[in-house]
Automatic annotation (TrEMBL):
InterPro entries linked: Aldolase_TIM, Radical_SAM_PqqE_MftC-like, rSAM, rSAM_sf
Keywords from the named record: Iron, Iron-sulfur, Metal-binding, S-adenosyl-L-methionine
Protein name: Radical SAM/SPASM domain-containing protein
Native source species: Blautia pseudococcoides
Classification via Pfam families: Radical_SAM
Domain of life: Bacteria
Signal peptide boundaries: none
One Gene Ontology term of the molecular function aspect: metal ion binding
Segments forming domain Radical SAM core: 8-243
SUPFAM superfamilies associated with the record: Radical SAM enzymes
């Protein structure tokens, strides 16, 4: 894959399907107040437990949109996310249909519907990384996500199964007033398990996030993870990620540059393209109604990208933003090495590594 021109060759397509459909209602969920304009679609959606319906027509439509967007912007990585994808009956039909078009597929889920059968199917696809959202291994630590020990037990059993099957696993944890003080316990818990596990902690962001901010005292406890990084390096992200996270808390805002809108394209199942995968405030184009040339023109003339480029960050959403994709920013800044990048399954594909390297050169050259 060739890096054609600055900014329009992306490492990842972040593809979102029906963000409003979920079986959970996590207290901090950003999707519940997302401003994305939803176009009505002429399909009846069947849920996991529905007796009738199979979603096949809907998934054929979705696969077609994704293929159009992949033709327009080929990427080695697909990040695919709902709402909750596995609440959609027959989601495996879609995953089977599209997975081969990508080097790696990162599947985001709350983990609840991942039965042994579904997991064995995911394993069979051969190129998937599971990214499960979990704030802690106990119900107390995970309290902003689950409201019963039954839910917690199911998720943990499913996670166990993922590990046993050897599917690469990322555990995404929102740091809140409930889990930050004891997050080291979460790290220890997973560190003691044999398997391909990567923990990715990050702050809650967006409207209402203030109510989840851990106290300064809790943050101090979190900082101990950095002091004992060597003990836990097996399950922690590269040390610069952890340092940056601590830095974010010390400053109260991000003070490193962001290249995410240049590295990831945010697309939706209805063809909409948004300006940034972490900030769905600006819809820049639609894959169904425009060709590549028109889409690139739309992107080029949209002033939001100049605002994203400003440093220190101009937008509140940017100042508050610290996400799992910080790995990409830190790599572009030369703070994460090729070897560290390669250690993370998501980035370890040959094409991905090559493109990350080329994009880094291209982006840094154009920014300076
Ligand atoms: C919105 S969820 C959708 C996928 C799936 N239902 C899940 O929970 O993983 C995608 C990711 O966004 C995270 N998330 C949700 N609300 C957030 C917020 N306000 N700030 C930061 N991350 C958030 C979730 O924890 C999850 O890791
Ligand atoms: S499971 Fe995911 S989408 Fe559902 S409410 Fe929780 S964070 Fe939001």
């Amino acid at each position: 894959m060739k890096v054609s021109s600055f900014g329009y060759t992306y490492i990842m397509n972040d593809f979102c399907i029906l963000p409003e459909l979920c079986n959970f209602s996590c207290d901090y969920c950003i999707y519940s107040n997302a401003t994305v304009e939803q176009k009505s679609i002429p399909y009846k959606i069947s849920k996991y437990y529905d007796k009738s319906g199979d979603n096949i027509e809907f998934f054929d439509y979705v696969a077609n949109v994704l293929m159009n967007s992949t033709q327009c912007f080929p990427t080695p990585i697909l990040r695919i996310c709902g709402g909750e994808l596995f609440l959609l009956k027959n989601i495996m039909y879609l995953l089977r249909k599209i997975h081969e078009k990508f080097e790696t597929v990162q599947i985001i889920s709350n983990g609840f519907f991942l039965t042994p059968y579904i997991l064995s199917e995911i394993k069979e696809l051969g190129n998937c990384v599971l990214h499960i959202s979990l704030d802690g291994h106990t119900q107390e630590l995970n309290a902003h996500r689950v409201h019963s020990s039954y839910q917690q037990e199911i998720i943990l059993n499913n996670i166990n199964h993922i590990i046993k099957l050897g599917i690469p696993l990322e555990i995404a944890s929102c740091l809140t007033d409930r889990n930050t003080k004891d997050y080291e316990e979460v790290v220890k818990f997973f560190n003691d398990i044999e398997g391909d596990i990567l923990l990715l902690p990050f702050p809650v962001r967006g409207k209402g996030s203030e109510m989840f901010v851990p106290s300064k005292q809790d943050q101090k406890q979190l900082f101990k993870i950095l002091e004992r990084y060597d003990l836990y390096s097996k399950v922690l992200p590269p040390i610069k990620y952890v340092e940056s996270l601590m830095n974010y808390y010390e400053n109260g805002y991000r003070n490193i540059k962001c290249y995410i809108p240049k590295a990831i394209v945010q697309t939706f199942y209805n063809g909409d393209i948004y300006s940034c995968c972490m900030d769905w405030s600006v819809r820049v184009a639609n894959i169904n109604s425009q060709n590549r040339k028109e889409i690139i023109e739309q992107i080029q003339k949209n002033r939001i990208y100049n605002i994203y480029d400003m440093f220190p960050p101009k937008l509140r959403s940017c100042r508050e933003c610290f996400t799992v994709s910080e790995i990409i920013n830190l790599y572009f800044e030369g703070k994460i090495s090729d070897k560290e990048l390669c250690n993370m399954q998501l980035f370890s594909g040959k094409t991905t590594l090559k493109m990350m390297n080329e994009l880094r050169k291209e982006i840094i050259k154009n920014v300076k």
